[in-house]
Amino acid sequence: MNKRWIVLLLVPLLATPALAAGQTAPTGQAPAVAGSAAAKADATGSVEERRLQVTLQQEYERLQQRELALQEREMKLKTLQAEVDKRLAELQKLRSEVDGLLARKKKGEQERAAQLARMYEKREPANVARLLVGLEEPLAVQVLGKMRPKAAGKVLNQLDADTAARLSQLFTTHKFNE
Fold it and tell me: pLDDT (tens digit, 9 = 90+) per residue, 100-142?
C-alpha cells in the first residue's frame, strides 16, 4: 500500500512541466503547491500563446481570402480587357470599312458631278442656269467648278445677281479635291 501512495503523489508532480524538466520546487513550499503555481504560469502562457496563435491564424486566413479575391478580380479584369480589346479591334475594322465606303461614295459623287458638268457644257447657258437654281448649292458649285471657266461664266451671266453672287462666293471657298 505504501507503493500505491507514492505513485499517487508522484504522478501529479511528474505531470507538471517544471518538475518534469528536472526543476525542483522552491524551498519552503510543498511540492504540490509548487506544481500548481507552475501549472498556472504555464497555463497563462499557454492561453496567451493560444490566443496569439488564433489571432495569427485568423489574420492569415483573412489575408488568404483577400489574395484569392484579388486574384479573382484580376482574372475578371483580364477577361474584360480582352473583351474590350476584341471590341476595339472590331470597331477599328468597321471604321476602316466605313472610311472605305465613304471614299468610294465621294469618288462616285465627284465622277457624277464631272459627268454632269460635261453634259451642261453642251447645253445652252440659259437652260443650265435654270437647272443649277434647282440643285443644292454645294452640288451646283461643284458642277460649276468642273465646267470650263468660259462655259461657267456664261451660265453665271444667265443667273440673277443674288444667286450668281452666292454661288460665286461658295465657289471661292469650295475645295474641289475632297
Answer: 999 999 999 889 989 989 999 999 999 999 988 898 988 899 9
| C-alpha–C-alpha distance, residues 87 and 90, integer Å | 5
**pLDDT tens-digit readout, 56-82:** 999 999 999 999 999 999 999 999 999
Task: Please name the amino acid found at residue 64.
Answer: Q
Q: Return d(Cα 123, Cα 107) in angstroms, integer.
A: 25
Nearest-5° Cα angle at 107, 143 to 175: 55
Q: Hey, what's the cell of 113?
A: 458631278
pTM of the model: 0.50
The grid cell for 22 is 528536472
Three-state SS sequence of 89-117: HHHHHHHHHHHHHHHHHHHHHHHHHHHHH
